Amino acid sequence: MDEEYDVIVLGTGLKECILSGLLSVDGLKVLHMDRNDYYGGDSTSLNLNQLWKKFRGEEKPPAHLGASRDYNVDMVPKFMMANGTLVRTLIHTDVTKYLSFKAVDGSFVFSKGKIHKVPATDMEALKSPLMGIFEKRRARNFFIYVQDYNDADPRTHQGLDLTRMTTRELIAKHGLSDDTIDFIGHALALHRDDRYLSEPAIDTVKRMKLYSESLARFQGGSPYIYPLYGLGELPQAFARLSAVYGGTYMLNKPECKVGLTASMLIIYAIMCEFFYPILYCRLNLIWRGKCVVLHQKVKLPSARRLSVILLTWPTRYISLFSIDVIL
């Protein structure tokens, strides 16, 4: 093992591995270490044995649960927009050769006690019970405006300045109902609360265009894709990129911490996840939890991979959230 490095990275979370990969490609000498025996940090995907060890200590998982390698459990479950920034980053850095993806079968909203599919085609939109027939006509005109909108072409703006006009003002021009506004804002634009209504409309329009572009990219039933073996594959892909360009990786180093001396100032940078002690300072641990229970009478669709967005509660009072479900 070499004793001098340009960059030391502690923790193998996604952002750390992206930086490690890019710096290695740029010719810097990188040492990358992790206290865990797996990649991904808090956003990893664990097999059954790793999952049991994390939450049950040294206890072994029951035999009836099957082979450990058949499990890839995300610690932070998320789907990816098929035309989003992360996907474009994966393509630009050419790490997609290390990854396989699945298109998510459908996106759904939970509204008024029932689960409805977010329309993915014109025919689905016509049949959807989420809007009445007259509301669908008004919504269609709004969707056409959003689809045709081009920042660089004022002819598509219809005389509107979306950087000054709020989303509420833009939607009011199309006479849409409150239910439709909730649907557009949270199921399509994917806003987490209602603050977007008082903010410039350009952000909501760009979010809706991203949804539409992602939906069209793979011609699937939703705009989402998912790594075949879990989100933990993403940091691993960038770790492989770093290793190809000379990066050094060391896992299972629980005593990792950083203490600087004058002789170590030859290091250009030290990057780490929040839980690694820097200069021997201790960090407080913050616990956050969220539990969602769907009533047994709520019937889930038959799709094996889906996203459910909850529209049940008034979003002006709470932050709206979605559930990614993989069956």
TrEMBL record:
Gene3D superfamilies the UniProt entry points to: FAD/NAD(P)-binding domain, Guanine Nucleotide Dissociation Inhibitor, domain 1, Guanine Nucleotide Dissociation Inhibitor, domain 2
GO molecular function: Rab GDP-dissociation inhibitor activity
InterPro entries xref list: FAD/NAD-bd_sf, GDP_dissociation_inhibitor, RabGDI
Presence of keyword Membrane: yes
GO cellular-component term (any): cytoplasm
Cleavable signal peptide: none
Source taxon at top rank: Eukaryota
Alphabetized UniProt keyword annotations: Membrane, Transmembrane, Transmembrane helix
Statement: the UniProt record of this protein carries the keyword Lipid metabolism: no
Positions of transmembrane segments: 258-280
Biological process annotations from GO: protein transport; small GTPase-mediated signal transduction; vesicle-mediated transport
Family: Belongs to the Rab GDI family.
Stated name of the protein: Guanosine nucleotide diphosphate dissociation inhibitor
Record organism: Triticum urartu (Red wild einkorn)
